[in-house]
């Protein structure tokens, strides 16, 4: 029997399950990582402009549907059902996929997945005159997550991204900063420069979108027609039929999915839906949430192989890479319901100002702030600063098409981080919170503490506070603090109550 | 009705006048107001910092304080704290293995209302001028705080009540539903991102030319008021002249008497047409668009309880009248 890596044994602790590897871990803590991006005004303008445009489009097409909330409920219920019975659905999917002529490979983590794909490429792609092999790629978060392109490069294999935005990122030797619009941080002038610099036969280009798109189109056409192996991700896997699906806007994905001889798909094990009919709900939720379109231009489904039509070798790598670990977290597992629409990033005020690179992971924004730590395990690994990269404003939860309660999971992960006690030396903030807990754990202590207000009022001369030392300096670096009152409300109340009783006594 | 006031820690210790205003409004409707003395805080600060173990005694204290005395409903001038009671306290108590506390906390939360929620849903107040005698003849804009908007689903309860105050000149706040960046300890743990969010919020408020920005949460108003004060005092949030996304241009117009007046207009936000060039950054520092001396915190950001409590007999005054924001006692 196939090992599914599922937490079947009740005694199995979450921390014993393997954590995800690859591009999931923050290189530096979020406050520091966001520092340089905050001061990059060009990046903030590009992102602010793009997210507000998509945000408005999304709101418009969502408002057209009377049953949007019912669709969200249905989406949530279906994904919960999948997660509750994932081993059964995976087994069903494997059987149907294999019966249709496909071959399934199971990968516990990024290293295993990369090794499997490398071997498949070596078996199916010829060595070119350059001494290297080539593959074309459909935009895929799973392969970004495992760092497939970088791995293939070390194995003598060049992977060509065919999605326009991924191509911009790849040619710019950059990283994606948004899961739907990977080059969201670039404007058209920057793209023109990248193309003229990195496309050998591009010639002179203007910064017109049509001109830039045409250059990319010419650049890619030859690859589509000559490359033997394509690598894709998948938006959905249907357990009932063994079908895979890719949803895209440009059609370049469909070229990759149909023209080469061999198709290798890498898909996270959480991407399953029980039945083909479930797509009715998800094909309404996904395009509206992600691009603000009623329907995306290209949707491709394939079920195994068809003799004489399309790829004749069809492989699927089913990827765990920390997903069973996330699934074992009862308070965080709904993060796996994510269908990668990116609506949460487009509404997030933090993402809007820092961009995606500050999150240090393939998955940026609110979903990244919970998904990355859940996949790697916040308990003993990195990613400890990501759950704090949110003001908990809740905008992400409101737009999530499958109703992932991101703010609540953020708070849960903060608690996990606190329990893991990453920094044994208490920070000033921790010390202040500890003191506040003691004080606020009893109203009498609070009353006593507030008796200090007249003194504090005097010390500050009844003036507002414009600068404080230590951790509070982070606050006063950009904000003033009001003058402290002479008396707290409870003191005023107590005095007025005493006066009232005295008056009544005199009567 | 016998109403238990939950003042919240921040109002109790920093903005007693907001609690006083709340009491006045409730008494004006004929209610008896009591103040459960054992109260301190809802625990949100600890919960949102992930410190569930430290939050538990704070939650227990709140439940104890509000079950010690008899009351019909509890009212708090804070959507965030009321949301914490209902959404977070039972969850944390359960996570700490304290199911009894969880159910007691849920009971208290069920009977606790945010001020405008109580006025609208329980009292049926739709016209603050008629029902409460509220009078505030000033230009006011309104920031709906995230937790009221998204956790309590207050909808237009707050803005409708503010609009119905006699004499008020209500002006919509652009991008009102964006977070001000406070987020409790978020503003300390990610101070730079928080400042960037605050800066945008303050710019939109300034662009409305309102005398005050109101809202229902003292914590957000502390943040916004602190930002306005800093900006008005120094023309900057961090010591450097503010040039980030503000485009300031001077426009002249001619008034009825034929005099040309200089007017400072702030264009908020930046799009492709408004990218600031380095030259602009160097030559066009933002001038504080209001008073030379600068606002004090709490003058430009005023809790809506104080506006609702303001009457012709006991008006709340704003700085443009040459006085600091003042007025209001328990009586």
From TrEMBL, chain A:
Q: Is Membrane set as a keyword in this record?
A: no
Keywords tagged on the record: 4Fe-4S, Electron transport, Iron, Iron-sulfur, Metal-binding, Repeat, Transport
Basic and acidic residues: compositionally biased ranges: 498-507
- Residue span, LUD domain: 90-316
Domain of life from the UniProt record: Bacteria
Identify the residues that the record assigns to the 4Fe-4S ferredoxin-type domain, covering every copy. Answer: 335-404
InterPro entries registered for this protein in UniProt = 4Fe4S_Fe-S-bd (IPR017896), 4Fe4S_Fe_S_CS (IPR017900), FTHF_cligase-like_sf (IPR024185), Helical_ferredxn (IPR009051), LUD_dom (IPR003741), LutB/LldF (IPR004452), NagB/RpiA_transferase-like (IPR037171)
Give the start-end ranges of region Disordered: 1-20, 485-507
Q: Which NCBIfam families match?
A: LutB/LldF family L-lactate oxidation iron-sulfur protein (TIGR00273)
Q: What is this protein called?
A: LutB/LldF family L-lactate oxidation iron-sulfur protein
Q: Which organism is it from?
A: Brevibacterium spongiae
TrEMBL record, chain B:
Report domain Cysteine-rich positions: 3-85, 140-224
Please list where the region (Disordered) is annotated: 271-295, 312-331
Q: Where is the composition biased (Polar residues)?
A: 280-294
Domain of life, per lineage: Bacteria
Its recorded name reads (Fe-S)-binding protein
